[in-house]
Specification:
The complex is a heterodimer of chains A (about 425) and B (about 140). Chain A contains 14 helices and 10 strands. With about 425 residues, chain A is of the alpha+beta class. Chain A has 2 domains: about 160 residues, no CATH class; about 190 residues, no CATH class. In chain A, strands 2, 3, 4, 9 and 10 form a 5-stranded antiparallel β-sheet that branches. Chain A has a 3-stranded antiparallel β-sheet with strand order 7-6-8, with no helix packed on it. A two-stranded antiparallel sheet of chain A has the order 1-5. Chain B has one domain. Classes of the chains: A alpha+beta (about 425), B mainly alpha (about 140).
Chain lengths: ~425, ~140
């Protein structure tokens, strides 16, 4: 995908009206201000005067804080009010969107006019954030860029509402407590979004089975496909995917996927022993132990071939207790950003990873839902890749991952002893060998 | 004796910078945690993120007290983030890798540092002018 496609994939189609509403907010505010205020040089950029009756309840917040909170709450209001335009989720949730949107708009106005807003806004912000995490955590909505951006806006507004005025005397402990709360709230929301995204990604495994008995609705044609199959890793937090034009594989695509899985399994019998893979040019990584050790073949990675069962770019082994089990392969595209062919349609679904490469110490992590990487790191995205498992995996040959417990049991039964000569050739030693 | 007037920046700008800094701290720790999990739970990968997070907290707290060095440090860090973003976009042009640009990434890696720079600038200018005014006042006549 090119950068523009990747950008748009991150935005769920049902959230486009909400994004447009947020972007139109400055125009709406300009129009409302023109209608409400006398047009004079003094009025431009100034908050309306507080009515005398409310002077006693004016918040003692600094001016810029009030303005920022007003805008942030305004954005949240626009998003929530426009959400029902994108998707209908029942009367209760629609009322919730509209009600919270109206409350945000009212609080934004109060903040703008210098009236009390902090308590009400804080409660509403916390409630909205919790509701969003609950809905996305229960699979009701996949976190996407608009949802996460709105959560960010709400977290910033919450921080500004909570942190006391620095000019206020004897508030040092209060400032420490609410600062820690702001950091913790942002962290917890990030972890929850991450967990929800990874769980949603793993849940797609049922849809990529080529066995009709195991297949999810992608093969069984469920009526609930809207919520089950629109997973496109729109949080883009470690996983980048292309949305599927059609979530239902045709009989030809099912046959093609099966043929690919069988061809791969047949070709890989030659690498059931680890030393044969090493002899063929696959390289053991530095940490050559675990239940999903990936071994790349540098020559196959630049041979110009795509989905060649004879030359998969990466092999995946379980390596433990001096024994190795070949679990499957990973087909990898040579050039990043180039969409890979999908002979099996939605069954043969590819993905890429956006990673953080760090130098101190050398390593890599995945990009957080907030698009952040650790300090001194580079945020880069890999070419597209696709797993094909050659073992009798319960979730099928095209599952995104394997259950570690299942792999451990399979490895205990099928693992082959690693020959010392081959491991010495790779420059590595097994943790404990025969 | 001439009177030098120093324009005060809009009140509350440093307050916003402080909260933006707190959010950056959370982003850093979260990203550090992601790397620790992927690198087999090795806590060494938390070292650099935690050091930067502590520095950000110190800079943010001192910026609230209108310390010029803290404001400058925050501006420098914001510029590093912006330059890093541009650098990553350039590296992403290489065939072997790509660079993912999305809405949230733009907010946190471009919008946030730009906001910090824009909010710190009037404060730095005001501090500079105040110092110049003080220096002028100290000159014996």
């Amino acid at each position: 995908m090119n950068p523009i496609e990747t950008f748009t994939v991150g935005i769920a189609p049902m959230h486009v009206p909400a994004l447009v509403a947020a972007m139109l907010l400055p125009v709406v505010v300009l129009v409302v201000r023109r209608l409400r205020l006398p047009v004079s040089p003094d009025a431009v950029g100034a908050a309306p005067t507080v009515r005398p009756a409310e002077q006693s309840t004016v918040d003692a917040q600094p001016d810029l804080v009030r303005r920022w909170v007003a805008w942030l709450l305004g954005i949240a209001a626009a998003v929530h009010l426009a959400l029902p335009l994108g998707h209908y989720d029942g009367v209760l949730r629609t009322l919730g969107y509209v009600g919270s949107g109206a409350a945000y708009a009212w609080l934004a106005l109060r903040a703008y006019e210098g009236r009390r807003y902090r308590l009400g806004a804080s409660l509403l912000l916390v409630a909205t954030l919790i509701a969003y995490l609950v809905v996305s955590g229960m699979g009701g909505e996949e976190p996407d860029q608009v949802g996460i951006a709105t959560a960010l806006v709400e977290l910033l507004a919450l921080g500004l509402c909570l942190v006391p005025d620095p000019q206020a005397p004897r508030r040092r402990f209060a400032r420490f407590a609410v600062s820690a709360t702001t950091i913790l709230a942002t962290f917890v929301v990030g972890v929850a979004l991450w967990a929800g995204t990874i769980a949603a990604h793993a849940a797609t495994d049922a849809d990529v089975s080529t066995d009709p008995a195991q297949a999810g609705p992608a093969l069984a044609h469920s009526d609930d496909h809207e919520h089950v199959h629109d997973h496109a890793a729109r949080a883009q937090a470690g996983i980048i995917m292309r949305p599927q034009a059609d979530h239902h594989a045709t009989p030809e695509q099912v046959a093609a996927a099966r043929a690919l899985a069988e061809a791969t399994a047949a070709a890989m019998t030659r690498y059931t022993r680890l030393e044969d893979a090493i002899a063929a040019g696959y390289v053991l990584p530095a940490n050559a132990s675990g239940l999903d050790v990936h071994m790349d073949n540098p020559a196959f990675k630049r041979d110009g071939r795509v989905i060649d069962p004879q030359r998969p770019e990466t092999l995946v082994y379980a390596i433990e207790d001096g024994r190795a089990t070949l679990l499957g392969v990973v087909y990898v595209m040579e050039v990043a950003g180039v969409p890979a062919p999908q002979p099996g349609g939605p069954i043969t679904r590819w993905h890429a990873h956006n990673l953080c490469l760090t130098a101190l110490p050398p390593g890599f992590g995945i990009v957080s839902p907030f698009g952040s990487c650790p300090a001194l790191s580079l945020n880069l995205t890999t070419p597209e890749m696709m797993h094909v498992w050659i073992v009798d995996n319960p979730t099928g040959p095209f599952a995104e991952g394997l259950d570690p417990e299942w792999v451990r049991a399979y490895h205990a039964e099928h693992g082959l002893p690693i020959a010392g000569r081959a491991v010495r050739h790779s420059g590595r030693q097994p943790e404990s060998g025969p | 004796m001439s009177v030098v007037t120093v324009p005060a920046p809009v009140r509350g700008g440093l307050h916003v910078v402080y909260v933006l800094t707190l959010m950056q701290v959370a982003f850093l720790v979260l990203a550090g945690l992601g790397e620790v999990v992927l690198m087999g739970g090795n806590p060494a990968y938390l070292l650099v993120p935690v050091v930067k997070a502590v520095l950000l907290i110190v800079f943010g707290t001192q910026a609230l007290r209108r310390r010029r060095w803290a404001l400058r440090a925050l501006v420098v860090l914001a510029w590093i983030t912006l330059v890093g973003f541009a650098l990553q976009a350039l590296i992403g042009l290489a065939p072997a890798v790509d660079f993912t640009v999305n809405l949230v990434g733009l907010m946190t890696n471009v919008g946030l540092p730009v906001a910090v720079i824009l909010l710190c600038r009037p404060e730095l200018r005001a501090i500079k002018q105040a110092r110049q005014a003080a220096a002028l006042g100290a000159v014996p006549r």
